[in-house]
Each structure stands twice: as structure tokens, then as C-alpha cells.
Amino acid sequence: AVSKALDRAGYLVISTALKDCLTSPDGEGETDPGELEKLFLSLA
């Protein structure tokens, strides 16, 4: 259980970093940040 929680936390960190990379400077991203987070959390 602890390992899975740590994996999910790691994926959340990665998805947050990718979300920051995919968001343009004016705050208008071309991808849905929630969809990206859901994708990475589904891998955990």
C-alpha cells in the first residue's frame, strides 16, 4: 500500500511538471491539465 501511494505521488509530481511545460506563458494550455493528470495517475 505504501509503495503504491509513493508511486502515485511520483506520478503526480511528474504530471505537474509536464503540465507546467505544456502550458503557454499566458496560461492558455493546448492540452487539458486534468486529462494529463488523470492519464499519469492511471499508470500508478
Present the secondary structure layout.
Layout: H1 2-22, H2 33-43
What do these coordinates show?
The protein has helices at 2-22, 33-43. The chain has 44 residues and is mainly α. Helix 1 runs antiparallel to helix 2. It is elongated and about 40 Å long. The mean pLDDT is 76.
What helical percentage do the residues reach? over 70%
Quantity of strands, as a count: 0
Terminal CA distance: 12 Å
Q: Give the topology string: H per helix, E per strand.
A: HH
Mean pLDDT: 76
Shape: elongated
Q: Which features does this protein show?
A:
44 residues, 2 helices, mainly alpha
Summarize it:
The chain is mainly alpha-helical and 44 residues long. 73% of the residues lie in helices and 0% in strands.
